[in-house]
Hints:
Helices cover 30% and strands 24% of the residues. The chain starts with a strand and ends with a strand. By secondary structure, the protein is an alpha+beta fold. The strands form 5 sheets. Strands 1, 4, 5, 6, 8, 9, 10, 11 and 12 form a 9-stranded mixed β-sheet that branches. It is globular. Helix 4 runs parallel beside helix 6 and helix 6 crosses helix 9. It has 13 helices and 21 strands.
Amino acid sequence: MAIIRPFKAIRPQAKYASEVAALPYDVMNREEAFQEIQDKPYSFLRIDRAETTLSPNISTYDDRVYQKARENLETLIQDKIYLQDPKPSLYLYQLTMDERNQTGLVCCASVDEYLNNNIKKHEKTREDKEIDRIKHVDSLNANTGPIFLAYRQKEKIAELTASIKEQSPEINFIADDGIKHAVWIIEDEDMIEALISEFSELEALYIADGHHRCASAVRVAQMRREEFPDYNGDEEFNYFLSVLFPDEELKIYDYNRLIKDLNGLTEKELLEKINEKFEIRKLGKEIYKPQVKAEFAMYLSGDWYQIKAKKDSYDSDDIIASLDVSILQNNLLNPILGIEDPRTDNRIDFVGGIRGLGELKRRVDNGEMQIAFALYPTSISELFAVADANLLMPPKSTWFEPKLRSGLFIHSLSD
């Protein structure tokens, strides 16, 4: 079952929402985050990336950064940029991109459901990234970055959601990147109970994006449980901030690869080796985007190639091996280009498909990288299948757009 519950959100007043809302902390580096907060005194990046409001000599992971994050949030609350709702509520959060809507239910999800694997994972987390967010959540005593969860579409939930959206939203703005954001408050107790009941019938929820934030939120909950051993399970720290989206409304973009060199091979040798596991067709100068699974686009020395995996090059019945990211890694990047571990190898870089294949071309043409590969996107059904099997996807398998904004909802761990 999927356990959800309402909470007293700390939210920006509607008139400040567009100035507060910020992209997730981990989609930009320190310099980009610093540039983003210039002339934006209410930007949530001042809390999520508080190092941007300190001396550049201070490390991103210095304890003073987390203390500063708390101070920056307290200032916004004291200045009444943020107010806390008087009673527990649920919320709808709709994002519109390219005329495509995706509407999620903002709520608190259960720590125990995560620990029991009823909230399913598909990605391995890194300890250093977890520690950063553990310190952040612990210092603020709050969840500030919503966990992006998905569920299999349920007709009754869709009907309830549609009825709520018949009302005017509390918050409605278009961000600088053209993404439209709208928020509805759900205060009616009958509606809240109906949604809780419908979600309780779902077998599972799935982490779409935010594995590190989720793992960190759970670890802080465990710290609170150690601190308060007589906890009864109803305390706020037993739940974490989430937004739940139906699978049919979600879109996963391609997550593409760039390699710095050809691993000592000539271009002729490279093509000969690729031909052992792939069918190759040279296309010329025009950018090419893969159209089906197991098909890739390669950019090398000013030309695009279509490469299709030969049927005997991978096991189509293996959930992991049949993923496009695995086919490319196991048959080309590792054995031919020598990328054994894409998590740690500094010869590889990754570019989300939202930036377009022109970004691959640009970085090869300017000499920064020597070869690029564009992939066909992983599907949400593949993500669910991997998670249901308690397996992990290869790194950089999925790129979701649009990105949820941080700062629109904060969940206090003590209220």
